[in-house]
């Protein structure tokens, strides 16, 4: 597995930023098991999973706190992990346009450096907590880019969570939340409300990605996931919701990112 740490100036964000990229390569396990994937053949491309961190995190989280590198190698899928601060992956009201950066600039930049397939059928997005919201938001806004999107313990009902007393939410400085959403009392019904974006795209008749969501039944964010599912389940979308015992922690996310990888239409080979 090639583990690549890229620092570069983003024209969208107007500052330097980082992204980590995993690229499956020949390994000792491949040799010992006679796995004859030709990683270096001309024109070979990788299916790609954009994997988003949660609040208070960065691009290192998935690499340090889960086994995603091993899972990516086993499934022959590249993984892209950008840093997005506490932006919720939106174009902030008073800050950087992270939605534009991740949906447009980042794929263009990485596509020039690495053999990543740009086909929709080979491109997926997932994230945990804040990143779960980000994965669905990006997938709804750019359905032409992603075949599938997955949320793990996602902050999906963003409006309801603004009044949460859970430490994960309440400890976020109010000034930062206002920088993201402008008026946190007006998230419901706005362009930052996932159900609003989803229904608008359905009205337009766009081909939406397949969706997967999972959450621990003891997680403080479990009610928010249930509320989003109740609003979305009868819409004309392909939505899977899996609930397991667990809380808002890396034991849950490391376990269930494997379920996401099993759910994705991975080819386990180069394309």
What's this model, at a glance?
With about 270 residues, the protein is of the alpha/beta class. The protein has helices at about 30, 60-65, 70-75, 100-115, 130-140, 160, 165-170, 175-180, 195-205, 220-230, 250-265, and strands at about 1-10, 15-25, 50, 80, 125-130, 150, 210-215, 240-245. It has one domain (about 1-265): Rossmann fold (3-Layer(aba) Sandwich).
Characteristic key phrases:
alpha/beta; 11 helices; about 35% helix; single chain; about 270 residues; Rossmann fold
Structural summary, described in words:
This protein is of the alpha/beta class and 271 residues long. It has a single domain (2-263), classed as 3-Layer(aba) Sandwich (Rossmann fold), CATH 3.40.50. It contains eleven helices and eight strands. Strand 5 (123-128), helix 5 and strand 6 (148-152) form a beta-alpha-beta unit. It starts with a strand and ends in an 8-residue tail after the last helix. The mean pLDDT is 93.
CATH architecture: 3-Layer(aba) Sandwich
Strand order of the largest sheet: 1-2-4-3-5-6-7-8
Q: Looking at CATH, which topology would you report?
A: Rossmann fold
Number of helices: 11
Element string (H = helix, E = strand) = EEHEHHEHEHEHHHHEHEH
Biggest sheet layout: 8 strands, mixed
Assembly classification:
single chain
Report the mean per-residue pLDDT as an integer: 93
Number of strands: 8
Number of domains: 1
Tell me the radius of gyration. 18 Å
Topology:
Layout: E1 2-10, E2 15-23, H1 28-32, E3 48-52, H2 61-65, H3 68-75, E4 78-82, H4 98-113, E5 123-128, H5 130-141, E6 148-152, H6 158-161, H7 167-170, H8 174-181, H9 194-204, E7 210-216, H10 222-232, E8 239-244, H11 250-263
Helix pairs in contact: 5-9
């Amino acid at each position: 597995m090639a583990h690549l740490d890229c620092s570069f100036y983003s024209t969208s964000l107007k500052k330097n930023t980082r992204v980590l990229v995993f690229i499956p390569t020949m390994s000792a396990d491949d040799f010992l098991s006679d796995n004859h994937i030709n990683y270096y053949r001309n024109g070979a491309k990788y299916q790609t999973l954009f994997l988003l961190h949660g609040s208070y995190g960065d691009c290192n989280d998935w690499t340090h706190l889960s086994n995603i590198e091993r899972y990516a190698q086993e499934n022959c899928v590249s993984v892209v992990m950008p840093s997005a601060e506490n932006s919720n992956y939106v174009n902030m009201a008073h800050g950087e346009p992270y939605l534009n950066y991740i949906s447009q600039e980042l794929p263009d930049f990485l596509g020039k450096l690495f053999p990543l397939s740009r086909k929709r059928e080979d491109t997926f997005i997932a994230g945990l907590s804040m990143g779960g919201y980000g994965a669905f938001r990006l997938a709804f806004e750019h359905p032409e880019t992603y075949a599938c999107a997955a949320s793990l313990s996602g902050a999906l009902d963003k409006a309801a969570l603004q009044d949460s007393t859970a430490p994960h939410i309440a400890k976020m400085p109010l000034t930062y939340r206002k920088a993201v959403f402008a008026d946190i009392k007006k998230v419901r019904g706005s362009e930052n409300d996932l159900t609003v974006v989803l229904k608008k795209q359905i009205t337009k008749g766009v081909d939406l990605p397949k969706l997967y969501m999972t959450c621990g039944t003891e997680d403080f964010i479990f009610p928010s996931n249930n509320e989003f599912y109740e609003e979305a389940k009868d819409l004309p979308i392909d939505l899977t919701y899996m609930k397991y015992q667990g809380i808002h922690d890396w034991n849950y996310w490391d376990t269930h990112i494997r379920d996401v990888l099993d759910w994705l239409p991975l080819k386990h080979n180069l394309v």
